[in-house]
Amino acid sequence: MKKTFRAALQDFQASLSSVYRGSGNIVVVNNEKGGVGKTTSAVHVACAAVDAGLKVLCIDVDPQGNFTRTMNGADLSQAYVTDNNFISAADLFYDKLNKDKTYPIRENLHLVAATDEMYTVDESGDKSRVIAAYQNVKRIMTDGAFDLCIIDTPPTVGNRQLAALLLADVLVMPLEVDAFSIKGLEKQLTRLTTSRRAGGLPMPKVSLMPSRVDLRYKLTKDQLASLSEVKVARVTPPIKHSGAISHAISAGKATWDVPVSSRKQVTEMLISAYTSALFLY
Known about the structure:
281 residues, 8-stranded mixed β-sheet, Rossmann fold, 13% strand
């Protein structure tokens, strides 16, 4: 007898709890191309993890702030964050972090929000900021006893992205399946390998997550098959384009919490992809 989508979701959450509880692991969602589903993936993983009973820290280093806005329901200004002594994502990139509070969205879900000051982080090109961010995030994870951290990244090369790549225990890379994206992927993985080696760090677990896939076309299927040639990464089951996913993110929710007609099918598809992407088996 096939499981209901709710039963499948409960199994997924149980696996998340089993693998990540007490781990202090950092999951980074990254691609140097925008509009491929990075924030969508970060939101769904964060929602599932909190519902699984994990204590989760969300960090948004993309100044567009979509992860912040979706998880919190609204933007957070730098003035508000500073006046209330909360840590912003921009604060992470300075040696002397004189704040000690992450913003509590609800029980077991905390946020280090993107603010307008994020734009200044890459301007100087000062790589000491990368080291500061690495050390500050590690300390926050320990001091806050977080089980899991999810970092949403910008589609640009710079200090913000580099710090996230160095912090990653698991790197999830949503990507569109086309010739340009696959070619760009090679450069991104080379940059990842070089930066981790320079920092004396082992490679993270890497998953490639084909997103917004249209399997009606033979070329798409052929390009999807070519991803298996990437030796340093696992390729997840594809995520097809779905209006239900966009609708859910616009509502600030995971797809399984939005009453749309395709919820069951889309939830099962997402669970399959995220189970693989997060190395739950």
